[in-house]
Queue: 4 jobs
Job 1
Amino acid sequence: MTFEHRRRVAFGDTDAAGIVYTGRFSSYALEAIEAWFRATIGVSWYEMTTDLGIGTPFVHTSLDFRSSLTPRDELLTEVALSKAGRSSLTFTITGRVADSRRLSFEGRFVCVFVDKASAKPIAIPAPFRAAIMGAVQT
Amino acid sequence: MTFEHRRRVAFGDTDAAGIVYTGRFSSYALEAIEAWFRATIGVSWYEMTTDLGIGTPFVHTSLDFRSSLTPRDELLTEVALSKAGRSSLTFTITGRVADSRRLSFEGRFVCVFVDKASAKPIAIPAPFRAAIMGAVQT
Amino acid sequence: MTFEHRRRVAFGDTDAAGIVYTGRFSSYALEAIEAWFRATIGVSWYEMTTDLGIGTPFVHTSLDFRSSLTPRDELLTEVALSKAGRSSLTFTITGRVADSRRLSFEGRFVCVFVDKASAKPIAIPAPFRAAIMGAVQT
Amino acid sequence: MTFEHRRRVAFGDTDAAGIVYTGRFSSYALEAIEAWFRATIGVSWYEMTTDLGIGTPFVHTSLDFRSSLTPRDELLTEVALSKAGRSSLTFTITGRVADSRRLSFEGRFVCVFVDKASAKPIAIPAPFRAAIMGAVQT
């Protein structure tokens, strides 16, 4: 089952060309991945960094744009965990217009678990490992 | 000569992990490419869309993160036009901390000239072609 | 009945102090007012400017901050239309944490209907007038 | 001598109405106040929160909009410290188009020094007091 995150496209997301500004799409993707973390492992990025001293910085993000978005659209972002390494997670992201399922963008986002104090990579923390491994979609 | 764009890292660019939020880096890169357009072809994105009816939507953006940034850093973003096709431009982006030259991120951004009314790709407009071809770095 | 808009506080909304960045609150308020327009008069800001040539620029925004927000919080923003003039609308905004009802911010936002071509104020357009007058809360 | 902060208006700051989005102006003002802190007391917000455990959250922000901005404009934001209390600073903000001096917005922003650990207001820290008192404009 692929995780889905839904959000309205806001007027403030558009630019003078009348469509969503390129720089906004990475926020859309990150917001959907953030929701995936809460739903899948039950801990938010904020709790992870603040309470547990664990970070998940991204080492790669890429996006291919297929069609533009406007506030007429509701965005449905699919988040699939396509790979889990020792410390890294690779997400495949697909953004669609909610009702027509028109494809808007596809992306790949890779993050790494790190110890916040040393900024060094760490193995996926034990309490999250089972949930993460169970979420890998191949 | 590679084009360079300089900016301070703002407090509002950081997140609760104490470093610049992942979603901000595409704005940094786009802001530097926007400055490249003004400097190289003498027409801003705003003038292009508003006065000339020409858009330059991005079809691909990717970023690899090498080290984090904070407001202690001033960012120097290098913009190199690595390829110009019939209607597309491919930029190689390199973000460094200004004084130490420490590498922060590398990226590839591809945009396409389009007729705004039809949203169809068009050849690089004649008035811009010479300046663009002269800027290609191989 | 006061209109309510609900949203999660995102990790990307925070800053290095570990709370939502001051500059984000006006976006929260505007996003809630944007939802009020869709719900109350059935036309979005995007449709108004793109399809009808009508703008609603803000002439005043103010915010008083009562307590900070983090991604542990879900935000509930109440939007009340407190006054409707010939062309202006005055909104009273109240931001609360959804479950505890803890007050986070209070604001006053004033916008004016304008003809987009001339940028001159216009009377509240006839098709919206009844819905708007019916929404005024005194 | 009033402190001035200069910045280009970016394409990504605009919305589908072809002018700068309302929600961006508080970021413009905050960015100018942030530069004022670095210039006046020699410590950035980031250093204050990270190195010194001191916060300066805003308790009030208000903006009156006089004319719109586009990326054709370069913005010159004047920051005047109009009042310094025991723990609070009141700034008067004036945004103008750089070359024509056309007025775009006026604002009032009030922040309070707090101990980050307790979130309680503190007196303006001794090392900053002289520089701050010397900057008050009446």
Note: The radius of gyration of chain C is 16 Å.
Job 2
Amino acid sequence: MAVGAAISDPPLPVAGISLAAVAAEIRYRDRLDLGLLCARGPCTLAATFTQNRFAAAPVRRCRELLIDAAPGDWALLVNAGNANAATGPSGASAALQTCRIAAAALGLPPERVLPFSTGVIGEALPVEPFAEHLGPLSAGLGEHGWEDFSRCILTTDTRPKVASRRLEFGAGAVTVTAVAKGAAMMQPDMATMLAFAGTDARIEQRLLLRLHREAVAGSFNRISIDGDTSTNDAAVLIATGAGGVEIAEGSPEHSALAGALGEVYAQLAREMVRDAEGAEHCVTLIVQGGRDAAQCALVGYAVANSPLFKTAVFAADPNWGRLAMAIGRSGADFDPDQVRIDFEDVPVMLGGVVAPDYSEAAATAVMARPEYTLRIDLGCGAAAERFWFSDLSHDYIRINADYRT
Amino acid sequence: MAVGAAISDPPLPVAGISLAAVAAEIRYRDRLDLGLLCARGPCTLAATFTQNRFAAAPVRRCRELLIDAAPGDWALLVNAGNANAATGPSGASAALQTCRIAAAALGLPPERVLPFSTGVIGEALPVEPFAEHLGPLSAGLGEHGWEDFSRCILTTDTRPKVASRRLEFGAGAVTVTAVAKGAAMMQPDMATMLAFAGTDARIEQRLLLRLHREAVAGSFNRISIDGDTSTNDAAVLIATGAGGVEIAEGSPEHSALAGALGEVYAQLAREMVRDAEGAEHCVTLIVQGGRDAAQCALVGYAVANSPLFKTAVFAADPNWGRLAMAIGRSGADFDPDQVRIDFEDVPVMLGGVVAPDYSEAAATAVMARPEYTLRIDLGCGAAAERFWFSDLSHDYIRINADYRT
């Protein structure tokens, strides 16, 4: 199951970007599982990848290709069903071959095609489906392909995730559209989050990377399903410049675009948590009163990843002792006697002990909601960070223990 | 449920140490829940405590009292059912009062009584049961009280945990006896591990601390139920010197005692994992071929705490992709192409890819056993560390979500 109704925008086309998807039967049957995104022009590109040492072959190839890459045409080649991870030299070779096939179909040099895979770890990626489908795929590219593309990257997600914003400036309009797939390794061998974003603004490479990293820091890097990190995580932002608006560093346009990008990424990140299989609750966690972002992050992740507290969230049990335990074990340095905790508008802990007017019934009522906000104030500074996390449910165990593909 | 049959030794008395336990009804009914351990003579004492910032009132008091404490008489006062954690100044006052009551009953200065509590977080510790029972408790002290004492400290453990060893030297015999309670915060609000050990050897304070810390490092600090750390964890070792054997640093006796202490602690640590409620498997994890102990520990804990891999252990599913994922996300620096993984005698991964003769049936057969050994070789050095962890089961969720006291 998933939390609430899907939150997904109709994707706005992005000038300079065309997309297509096909059912290539790489692993799944009768669904889109192979996609191509093509960005033409003096495009800049920013990307972040998993920190997992067992990074998959496509991640390793992307990293190599993106060292010192010049602006220009880019193609992103994405498959679901097979992660091409822990596949050794033959996996690297398969990633290279699929990119060469795509490059030939598009008339691009192979080093302008970036590969992405998600799915089963440790199985050889078959190259034949790519050879068979890249022709029709490249012929089918169109600016309205975002919807299909958002579907072809899914694994165990129950719904596609699309976010789109349009900004109007004096110099013209800027569009940002992004798609993503789920953040939990929810099913045996599945490997996890992918996000692809495009904008038609013209943005210099260094500034684009900064915009991308800042937006990732407050969104995809602020969610937790189970604390595990896949071998294939990747998030990519392309700026085509085809819309005609140039974003100068420090300009009002820069600030507005940073805000829109942050919103788009945060919407997708939250959707990943809401659509985590097994999830019955999506909790927004604000850690405030921190010395700095790093301290807030230590506390935020300790809470978001605590199996004991996540199980309490599942049970709608306002077990604040477990919450205090998780905060206390985070490794963050703070004075426990200054800590304040609120569940929405219900004060739970004040000055390190239970709040004087604490109502367990009121706290239980908050936790019974599918979505709510917890606030932890560390009482030692002005920094604040926001996180989203899901609960640890019977379904999480059932899906991960009982289900085998 | 628990894994396998209980492993518990008949406790050997330790000269200089007497113990007793009573049913004081602090929270539980009709069971031992209050204990006293009294060590008389020029006793040295070593202790380690939780690193949780929300350390409970008794932990805070112990820390204060143990700064620069001289050898001499010691009493340990332990209750189950109430953790006296997140209780603020009134909790500190309750800890102090209970120690004063015990000190008066024993004719000791209050600063020679160390308090320990385990149980519900955030509730006031009632002082009355201590006032009522300390007289009979001190009157009942005896050297055969280890068995009762091992029972009075339990919370959701299904069985007591006692380990005992006797060493014969030319100068005489040395006995080590220790008791412990469970390491999982397995039930709402429960706070966790306690261990109390005594020996009749005479050991200088600094050497005792070294012996204790080294034994803790390879035992209580090498287990994981759920990765959460309680507010009340404590492990204490007392050396009474009453047996007449003196342990000199660097002597054969030192080495033999270090070995015995390591065995005693490791036996108790493993029993905690085997008795973790909800546990159906107890896995011994060897991380070898590491650069140093710290690198092995990063990998060991990443695996032992991975919800995805722990769920695979529960399901007896040889999902080595998840294992690789957990190793890779540990933060340890290594070459994935050098990694080797074995499940008992079944090679699973070699050189970073699936082993050429890998048999899923054989790996599944290993994982179907209640207890087995996983071996990860990082291929970058000679360091090795051993860990024990339990699985993530339906019962873990049920116990922590559905059960409320």
Note: Chain A touches chain B through 63 residues (CB under 8 Å).
Job 3
Amino acid sequence: MTQKNRGILTVVSGFSGAGKGTIMKELMREHADCYALSVSATTRDPRPGETDGVEYFFRTREEFEQMIAEDALIEYAEYVGNYYGTPRTYVEEQLSAGKDVILEIEIQGALKIKKKFPETLLLFVTTPSAAELKQRLIGRGTESVEVVESRLARAVQEADGIEAYDYLVVNDVLSESVEEVHQMIRNEHRRVSRNINAIHNMRSELEDFMRHNEKGKEQ
Amino acid sequence: MTQKNRGILTVVSGFSGAGKGTIMKELMREHADCYALSVSATTRDPRPGETDGVEYFFRTREEFEQMIAEDALIEYAEYVGNYYGTPRTYVEEQLSAGKDVILEIEIQGALKIKKKFPETLLLFVTTPSAAELKQRLIGRGTESVEVVESRLARAVQEADGIEAYDYLVVNDVLSESVEEVHQMIRNEHRRVSRNINAIHNMRSELEDFMRHNEKGKEQ
């Protein structure tokens, strides 16, 4: 039961403003030895303060389409004229080394990954209530009706497909949510379906031992 | 997201000698407010020190067969001439009240329950390795080959069907195993499929809010 398992791929999605990014940052800070955070590639321009390879890998449209052609992305999508995608090599190297990899992507990309890799763990971060989400979407009440509308439309879109997720992270107290996510992933390592080899080995050893014991009886 | 969910039914099985009983006892001691332990009914005679309603409900064969006839058992089986079964009422009352119920039964009974109630959480307690299990089965080496053989046969039987289980509890350090089981059940409450109503409510509220916002724009 002690053999090193393959790492677990976890995708974290959630409502904008539910604190997903902060949970991820804290999780990486507290458990840097457990997790590798996958960095997405994009064709959008870096914003002030963003560094290539940290927030994103910033690529030209040509470079990105080359990656698509070479099947170098686990998933990709185009939003508002820009590509976003998950580079394959880093994820696969880390998983093979037994490291758990975390991706923070939206729900449609998450569902594509789950389809390709059914063992992916899908977590969805939400506020404790719709009322709280509304409050964050409205902000201080100084936004125009149109801005609130576009945020609401985005929230509805962000939750489309949530039924396919494994666990909800109801982000009320940050430190508790970080620990919950950590426990969800630790727990996943104990899933029977992820330990089938160890179980089969244990059973074979028991059966071998039974045969030896039988021999002892015959002598 | 704060609505009271139905309790979770957890079945704990495992190899004899892997420490299943001790884990359960500690779990109930540390988290008595969270869990209700279901007591099985049996037709076997009480052993010295056993109390009706504590270790088992001790019933006559006639009483037991009456329970079977009335569908008053979630599952039952006959071993070595005695019936063993899980009374239905207690389990259903506790689950409806939102209390998590734990059953400690062997794997064949567990699989029957999982078939009837697919939402049941199945946990299997094992030693860290086959070597350690063998050691416990052999004991001090003073047992006859036949006794060792029957223990081995039982262990092989106890693991038959383990692939249908959800999680392995590798019992190395008792206190850690108790905490693991507790976390597995807590975690289960956060599963998306157990929170579908809350998710649907949240989505409706968001959509209602969108409609109201639309009206605001029209005015």
Note: Residues 91 and 101 of chain B are 7 Å apart (CA to CA).
Job 4
Amino acid sequence: MIVILKHNTQEEKRNQLIGWLKNQGVDVHISQGEYQTVLGLIGDTAKIDKDLVASLDMVDSVKIVTDPFKCCNRKFHPDDTIVEIGDVKIGGGNFCMIAGPCSVENEEQIVAVARSVKASGAQLLRGGAFKPRTSPYDFQGLKATGLELLKIAREETGLPIVSEVMAVNDLPLFDDVDVIQIGARNMQNFDLLREVGKLRKPVLLKRGLANTVKELLMSAEYIMAGGNEQVILCERGIRTFDDYTRNTLDLAVVPVLHELTHLPVIVDPSHATGVAKLVRPMALAAAACDADGLMIEVHNDPMHALCDGAQSLLPEDFDKLAKEVKAVREVTGK
Amino acid sequence: MIVILKHNTQEEKRNQLIGWLKNQGVDVHISQGEYQTVLGLIGDTAKIDKDLVASLDMVDSVKIVTDPFKCCNRKFHPDDTIVEIGDVKIGGGNFCMIAGPCSVENEEQIVAVARSVKASGAQLLRGGAFKPRTSPYDFQGLKATGLELLKIAREETGLPIVSEVMAVNDLPLFDDVDVIQIGARNMQNFDLLREVGKLRKPVLLKRGLANTVKELLMSAEYIMAGGNEQVILCERGIRTFDDYTRNTLDLAVVPVLHELTHLPVIVDPSHATGVAKLVRPMALAAAACDADGLMIEVHNDPMHALCDGAQSLLPEDFDKLAKEVKAVREVTGK
Amino acid sequence: MIVILKHNTQEEKRNQLIGWLKNQGVDVHISQGEYQTVLGLIGDTAKIDKDLVASLDMVDSVKIVTDPFKCCNRKFHPDDTIVEIGDVKIGGGNFCMIAGPCSVENEEQIVAVARSVKASGAQLLRGGAFKPRTSPYDFQGLKATGLELLKIAREETGLPIVSEVMAVNDLPLFDDVDVIQIGARNMQNFDLLREVGKLRKPVLLKRGLANTVKELLMSAEYIMAGGNEQVILCERGIRTFDDYTRNTLDLAVVPVLHELTHLPVIVDPSHATGVAKLVRPMALAAAACDADGLMIEVHNDPMHALCDGAQSLLPEDFDKLAKEVKAVREVTGK
Amino acid sequence: MIVILKHNTQEEKRNQLIGWLKNQGVDVHISQGEYQTVLGLIGDTAKIDKDLVASLDMVDSVKIVTDPFKCCNRKFHPDDTIVEIGDVKIGGGNFCMIAGPCSVENEEQIVAVARSVKASGAQLLRGGAFKPRTSPYDFQGLKATGLELLKIAREETGLPIVSEVMAVNDLPLFDDVDVIQIGARNMQNFDLLREVGKLRKPVLLKRGLANTVKELLMSAEYIMAGGNEQVILCERGIRTFDDYTRNTLDLAVVPVLHELTHLPVIVDPSHATGVAKLVRPMALAAAACDADGLMIEVHNDPMHALCDGAQSLLPEDFDKLAKEVKAVREVTGK
């Protein structure tokens, strides 16, 4: 940790601070410049409250030089983590296509979609059973029944299943779900993160609407600190002033995360844009910048089909997209 | 709900949509303009999925004309809600000063701060026992012990206590806490909102870092839909491109919320700015624009005092501020 | 234009508003719902001040249903605009690679970079002569001399040149520059837009740091309304809360602009990210989502080369990237 | 300047960088930590390109420790600047009320508004003659005629006048305008800033929609570096994800600017919110947090009055507000 003091700091104040820092168990190197004093803290600086020090009147700024994340840090674990779900692999050069409907609606729907996306090359089936809804009056999902229907679709197709959990007390219902999804609104639900950290099954962690890269990594760290190392990160759009798409898909995060962490990074273009016709271009872009997978909404509902819209693709569109994604990945050398 | 169709929509597509809408149980009024067709939906439009309709190729945009929030809507409940905690009232012209340390550290600290803020006119004591921390390696609070220490401070001073809950399974520990706080990161933890909605005690609901006014009201609605009508809203800064304060305090939300809802609205200038010397000006500004209360961090810790900083005020600063806040409220006529 | 009135609007107030609207020369259709009244304005609504109407106490919201942009609107001009610069074409399926150094430094540098990027397939040479700098104390570019050096490089290589203009009074210096760039900070310098609208040469218009898609199109409209129809739009990153790249590259804007306008849309991954190693992945992503071109910083300066960094690529990296971009475009079917 | 190198930097690379830095004329102090190396640069670091250094592969981050702004920096000029316009003073404890219509419409209007706001205590008259409009098809103001009408209103009332300039070539028309306003969209129109820096009259500089505090100060620096020291800064709302007001008024910037600079800081609640009924609470909040003045839109147009809305206040509302602002300032001790 580096502490930069303001120009006009009194020596007495400065010495009080240095004394206090040393009491916390760190060594302090003083480097006196023309316009400022720089304190370099050596030792176990994790105990020092950065915000507290930064807020002192005499302090210009504080710079953390060691990353606060350990388990997910590529520095300490240079090889890509490969998350395995049965025969399916994500990461380390293994690209994974996850597809399925926004919500599980009934057996016919989920089985039909599962068959169709499997035929197009999807390796995992997604489907919402517990739905995070802004309004308490909106449909909240089929819940336990939805999970049962997903399992039927798995039995029919062999596709492992991914579904979102919203509450610690619902976790037992997910015992037989292959990948547990933590949604964007729960990215900093630390209680839930801690609990899935106790499990030994893959967790798909979505980036929050307004969370930084470091915060995403620290949330992965909550899970991994509990011993669960099978974490898949997912970019799904951030909230900005932009109003022409639901969220702003932040693709540069993919190569940035690849540098900072060994965990696989996938992209959800359906939720990021909220518009079906933007799913294809954004999926191709994600594949081109080296995402480890895509999570795409596909429906086969004639009502939606009639409408020719929503953020979900029709099975035939998904089939075409899957081929294009494969072609892009071949030429970008991954 | 109003649906604006694109210029070049084929009549057949348009009729399919109208047919589908009527099947959902609403009447459709068609108004044909030179460049667009406007569909006015009459009846119970709550069942219609706005996002689905908006994402159709033929649809330019969809406008919801009835507010999705009911219980907290001033239209249906014109009088201010006054939340009562023992003798303390918030809302309806009753201003409430909530003060206390960021974290409960030990009995001596919390009792001393409680006495001091009470002497300065605070009506509620705040103190963190369960702390939401970005890092799993940071201090997570004294937890149950912290709550016990708060109760001791309450016994010593008579001040009712406010503390943050982070997990549904911790709620039993809060049985004897007077006001339950839901932090910014949990504003859309719908599971937790639903559970505190089952209680019959005041909930202080903080606005999330990147949540809109409507989302804040919908989260209040989750609590109130469960029958718990004692909700206090709290603005504590939003995340923007700005980097000179921890968050951007959004004070215009205070009069805007007063128009939309009957619930009391308070402001937390300590967390919003993260800098002690900005607490006074932002607290005065909040009082001037008619907030129903303030939530302010106060410490009496000599280590912090030495440092003359952090986002917490010293007791003597709080005392001076409380007097100024009172004076501002007198001249702004509330 | 559609005006939605609030629930409790008095009939007298409503009639005053309708009378005033009719005085402005529009017809008003009234549609009375259970909870609101919707006014549909028919006729020349361009004269009506939307903001004024929206701010009335009785008005819930106002919805513009006809696009405010005409010249650049695909509705009125369905075919792609192809901007031609000598033999070079941008748009309508013609992909264009623009490359060159951030700043023109000297003849040797600019000629060497020009030769190298030409050999790699670049069709236009970029180079900054007038530099927008946040600080008045920073290097402001070689100005007129820089433009002369660009012309020498053009003579040596045949590559047409692109350079940024910052002031109306400098425009005469750009008489012999092939494409005039308007930088992000000047996207709403309406005076400058109007002046380049009087020219008959291509203008490369960069999106402002915090400007919406509609604002970008309206700025193009300023240029086109003056009769200059050769406008190239450029996405170069927006300002968000994100702090790990200089800006957040907003690639979904590419397909969105393709739908709204017939103008070509290119992407500048160098300025968007500010980091050399992110240029390749973001350039490939832009190509995959159907951008009409890329604008990439390339240097050959040994000092920079030593440092192996900055947001500029080395010539050999650019060469490799150009091949990959071509391959991506081939498989994405453009 | 402090340069923090990454953990695994090769010594050869490190030495190359140090050699290059020394060639730029600075001394380099090396401080070797367990996990990183910190280089402290001593001497004239202004010549070193921070972005270039920061983007090097081996560099973790760069920290500027001396402020890039000099003329407007309170460190070098501790006393408040008081800008004087005739008898009117802004700054150094002198509060200034600026009021007037959004646009100058005709003589009757501007003279009537001027008389009314003067009677209520306004000290400066504002009025738009050149209007920045997103659309080229919208009314662009009365231009030169508008300025002439403002001068008539000045003659009638004695109030000095403030109006916005949008183009360098229009500056001669402003010879007899008392305060020149630079609008938010032109905050980084460096050409225009440089030109008003050559004048010797007060400039009111509005913060851009998405500009940081440092960028605002650097734009003031452009003006002051030209020798014009009479700069008034103005907060007028920033662009965020929020959608319930036109912009988000960022009041914490007022005390922050007071600490960083000696220049006066005023607030424009009319443009920040875009809603008349929010002007009063935000004006009072600005006064409470120690702004040096307010800029408020006032109209007397019966059409607007009919509508009882817009972002402009009626004269009687302004009169009441002016009294309340005065009362707030009295109790907050300024």
Note: Chain B has eleven helices and 14 strands.
